[in-house]
Every structure is written in C-alpha cells, then in structure tokens.
Design goal:
This is Glycosyl transferase family 2. This protein has 227 residues and is an alpha/beta fold. The chain has a single domain, classed as Spore Coat Polysaccharide Biosynthesis Protein SpsA, Chain A (Alpha-Beta Complex). It is built from 8 helices and 7 strands. The longest helix is centred in the C-terminal third of the chain and has 20 residues, at 207-226. The chain starts with a strand and ends with a helix.
C-alpha cells in the first residue's frame, strides 16, 4: 500500500475509537495515529483496541504531530499521506476522492474543501469571515485561489512530504503551508468534500485564539513571502 492516513490526536478519548473504526471499515489504506501527549484516556483506547499509533511523550501541537507523521510516512516509503482529524469532522468516505484526484491531476496537494462547491457545511458567521479573510490573504501573497484554506483534510505527495519533514509550522499550519508551497511552485488543487460537526470533545480554537490565529498566520506568511 502506497498511502498512509495520519491521524493527529490530542485528548480525543470521546472520538478516537469511532474515527479509527470508521476509517478501517471504509478504506483499505494504512494509518497511523499520532498520540500527541494526550493526558486523557486516548492512549489507553489506542492500546486496548490494538490500533497503530506513535506516542509522543509531550504535547507538540498539531504541527509537531503532523510533522512526526510525515517523517514516518517518508521513512516507510509511502507515496502519499493524508491528514484525517481525530474528532470525526473528516468523513473517510471522501478519502477515495482525494486519492483519485491527486493521482489523476498530478497535483502535489489536494485539499478537501467545504466551499469549492455547495456542501451541507454550516459554520458561524465569524468562522466564515475568517476563512474568507485567509482566502484573500493567500491570493495576495501567492496568487492562488483556495476557497477553504483552513481545511486540514488534505493529501500530499512524496515531494511535499520532504518539504514538511524539513519545516512545518508549530501551530495553525494550514494556511502557512499553502503559501509556502505555492511560492515554491507546487501544484495545489481543491475538491468538494462533506465535513461533519465535531463528534465529541471541544474545539481548541476559542474566539480569543481565533484572533491570535489570524494575527500570527498573517504576520508569519507576510514575513515568509519576503524572505
């Protein structure tokens, strides 16, 4: 199998079992859960169910967890790697669409989008405004039009994996990595996917963190576009 599904997980005891079981039932791909220093029962659930996982001794954040997954995928010889969130928002039924698109189009990254076509997604006005803001920021910085730049549901090829093993943003990486890849000439494409509401737990992004997110990503992306 040349495809690896990477599932970053931090304190996802409410959802991790269902997420992995749904993936196993839906797709034939290999997977690895990156237990990102969880302090709840996430590790116990992974061990009890004999799921495939790597255990990080401390919490590195989404960037560190995903970079760990990409390094694992590259070392094991996988040609493609897919991020699948542990909270149940990403529907494994769309994995086949992502795989087919990256193979047929020759893209380096394919993003599962809630907005490139009409979907059932209903987000808050504030969240939609934030996504629209990053759409224009990316277009300004790199000239690419990505309707759902904050979507973490994405597949990358081996060339992009190499990029990510060298550098991956520590937190809120979705927008920044698109800008970086676009600047280097990588081909990025979007396709329609459906996304669910969180199946359990709480989002780590509060209104205050959202403001920090927008400021941090804007500043970092502007700096990296210059140097």
């Amino acid at each position: 199998m040349d495809i690896l599904v990477i599932i970053p997980a931090y304190n996802e005891e409410a959802t991790i079992r269902n997420t992995v079981m749904n993936l196993i039932k839906t797709c034939p791909y290999d997977y690895i859960v990156i237990n990102d220093g969880s302090t709840d029962r996430t590790r116990d659930i992974l061990e009890k169910n004999h799921f495939h996982y790597l255990d990080l001794p401390v919490n590195l954040g989404i960037g560190g967890a995903m970079q760990t997954g990409y390094r694992y995928a590259l070392r094991k010889g996988y040609q493609y790697a897919i991020q699948l969130d542990a909270d149940g928002q990403h529907d494994p039924k769309d994995l086949e669409k992502l795989v087919a698109e990256i193979k047929q189009s020759g893209s380096d990254m394919v993003i599962g989008s809630r907005f490139v076509e009409k979907t059932n997604y209903k987000g808050s006005p504030f969240r939609r405004m934030g996504i629209l803001y990053f759409y224009y920021l990316l277009y300004f910085l790199s000239g690419v039009k990505i309707t759902d730049p904050t979507s973490g549901y994405r597949i990358v090829n081996r060339n992009v994996m190499r990029e990510f093993t060298n550098y991956y943003p520590v937190d809120y990486p979705e927008v920044e990595v698109i800008a970086k890849l676009a600047k280097k000439g990588y081909k990025i494409k979007e396709i329609k996917v459906e996304m669910n509401a969180r199946q359990g737990g709480r989002s780590s992004i509060t209104p205050l963190k959202s403001l920090y997110y927008m400021t941090k990503v804007t500043f970092t992306s502007l700096i990296r576009s210059i140097f």
